[in-house]
Design brief:
Layout: H1 3-17, H2 25-33, H3 43-55, E1 60-64, H4 70-76, E2 84-89, H5 92-104, E3 111-115, H6 118-127, E4 133-138, H7 145-154, E5 156-164, H8 181-194, E6 199-208, E7 211-220
Parallel strand pairs: 1-2, 1-4, 2-3, 4-5
Antiparallel strand pairs: 5-7, 6-7
Bound molecules: S-adenosyl-L-homocysteine (SAH), 3,4-dihydroxybenzoic acid and magnesium ion.
Length: 223
């Protein structure tokens, strides 16, 4: 099967299981017009985020890496009428695009956007005793994934779910010599989690409209 076929199947899943509004086609169009890179999660995987956040009955959600808010909106849809997503991005323009999308979706009340380097904003959240989080989605600069993961575990409740995007990198994760910083970040993440007794984890390879990549999924042990 070719990458073009993966795209066709992703489109089929989208058409069968989501409405145009559900799949946020307007958000994707708006992001494209604003010149944002098309590196949002795919519609099927966005909906997976929503379903998993629903499963853990998430009320407090942490997202690292907002971009135009596409994944943020999927996560916010899991909240029902209670709770909040706090989403961090270092890029002011990305957050202003995200804010417009959230307003259009009627979800701006349920999302707090925080501008800054994720390391700094995480320090602030910790100082403010923000959380604990039920669900964390890590999708920013891949080099820092092990650092963000450790922080996410610290800020999470027992039983929380932590997802990290882009951990397969077209198979680059198994290449110790990979020149892709993202693949090296994924390798450090796997090393860290393999020695981490606070979580149980697996990873899911995916193909689709965004190529060959995958999620790491970890559950914080319930005490
Ligand atoms: N989660 C989004 C895609 C995020 S793309 C979605 O699926 O729709 C990655 C984002 O991480 C970009 O917007 C980029 O500005 C942000 N980013 C990169 N490095 C960062 C850092 N050090 N701190 C915070 N955000 C960062
Ligand atoms: C990139 C970032 C992502 O979050 C993603 O899903 C795909 C690619 C990137 O920085 O290239
Ligand atoms: Mg990503």
């Amino acid at each position: 099967m070719t990458e073009a076929a993966w795209d066709v199947v992703d489109d089929y899943i989208k058409r069968k299981l989501m409405s145009a509004q559900g799949a946020q086609e307007e958000t994707l169009r708006f992001n494209q017009r604003a010149g944002l890179p098309a590196i949002d999660v795919s519609p099927p995987l966005g909906k997976l985020l929503q379903l998993l956040a629903c499963l853990v009955d998430a009320r407090h959600i942490l997202e690292i890496g907002t971009l135009g808010g596409y994944s943020t909106i999927w996560l916010a849809r899991a909240l029902g009428t209670h709770g909040k997503v706090v989403s961090i991005d270092v890029d002011r323009k990305h957050l202003s695009v995200a804010r417009e999308n959230l307003v259009r979706e009627g979800l701006s009340e349920r999302v707090e956007l925080r501008l800054g380097r994720a390391r700094d904003v995480l320090d602030n959240l910790k100082e403010e005793n923000y959380g604990p989080f039920d669900f964390c989605f890590i999708d920013a600069d891949k080099e820092n994934n092990a650092y963000y993961f450790n922080y996410a575990v610290e800020l999470s409740r027992p039983g929380a779910l932590i997802l990290i995007d882009n951990v397969i990198r077209a198979g680059g994760v198994v290449d110790p010599e990979s020149a892709d910083e993202g693949a090296q970040g994924a390798r450090r993440l796997f090393d860290a989690i393999s020695a981490d007794t606070r979580v149980e984890a697996t990873a899911l390879q995916t193909v689709g409209s965004k190529g060959w990549d995958g999620f790491l999924i970890a559950r914080v042990h319930a005490k």
